[in-house]
Write a structure and sequence with these properties.
By secondary structure, the chain is of the alpha/beta class. The chain has two domains: 136 residues, Aspartate Aminotransferase, domain 1 (Alpha-Beta Complex); 243 residues, Aspartate Aminotransferase, domain 2 (3-Layer(aba) Sandwich). The protein is built from 13 helices and twelve strands. Strand 3, helix 6 and strand 4 form a beta-alpha-beta unit. It is globular and about 60 Å long. The relative contact order is 0.17.
Amino acid sequence: MSISSNVRTSMENQSWVRRMFELGLEMKKLHGENNVFDLSLGNPILEPPETFVLALQRLAADPTKGMHRYMPNAGYPETRGQVAQYLSQETGADFSGLDIVMTCGAGGALNVVFKSILEPGDEVIVLSPFFPEYEFYVNNHNGHIRPTPTDSTFQPDIKSIDQSMNKQTKAVLLNSPNNPTGAVYTSEILAELGALLQHYERKFNHQIYLISDEPYKQLIYDGTKFPIIYEFHESTIVATSFSKDLSLAGERIGYIAVNPELSTKSELLDAFVFCNRVLGFVNAPAIMQRAIGGILGASVDLQWYKTQRDFLFDNLSEMGYEIVKPQGAFFAFPKSPIPNDVDFVQELLAEHILVTPGTGFGTPGYFRVSYSVNEKVLTGAMDGFSRIARKYGLKK
């Protein structure tokens, strides 16, 4: 056998998102790009804001001596300090640069976190539907995910989380705003979750981390409040990136932030720095660290995403699709008109529409639609959605 059995199994079970991406490429070759409506990908379509472009231009015009060399594995002290200052202003907590580790995106951040905290056989509770790569990230470090359902509006179900807790539980992983649903978790539910984790920390006599994956936190609509996660549980870690709010997905720049109030943070942060190195990331990209340090809080055009969201939601709702209005991110997660979401996705393929079945996110019976696409792609898909809605008697 030329590759490991674990990797072979993982490749066979690789995400539906990847499968749809590859299928989309084939369909565009066959039918022409303008005749295929690919709504399956979570690729930010907007260009980075002008502030980022200007930051790059300044770096190119007046490069800092040695700016391409190695730096401390946690990142440039000045960048970590800028992130800490920004978070202190945003949250009211007293962050210092020592509470921050710069990483190769949120995916790199999560792998560093799991490498640092998981013992073989430990479990991480993830809320369904969930980003499918979470399973691979946890498995990379000898852990296991325990999928736990959310409620009818995709908010955390505290009772279900309670039933999932056991002695092997090491962490609960949140993603809000959520991929694939667009749900933003409420303060009230997060307060209940924090109290639950504290109860089980006492019962099992070990830390249970609350890990929050937050790359979409600036893409929130309608005045929805984004709760400050550090308020709800001491053992809180945030992993995030600038992939979505600055449209820098290809630059792989993010960070880990540890609750300043965490009593064991010193050892934990040392582990993050060590794992950032030994996992082969070594350090976050040097130029990106210098570029983002001075533009924290900047964002792409939120109104553009909101307009796309409203168009999609209004049209699918009018056609009769059952859909919870997304509060953030750039995805919607409608219910499939038939129980088998994979079969329904095949129906849409006949209309040259690509979406991702909910099965790929641990929640069969739904499908994910990305509205981070060209306006013509989104509008062009509506006729096909309408024909399928009439076929299944959805449209009144």
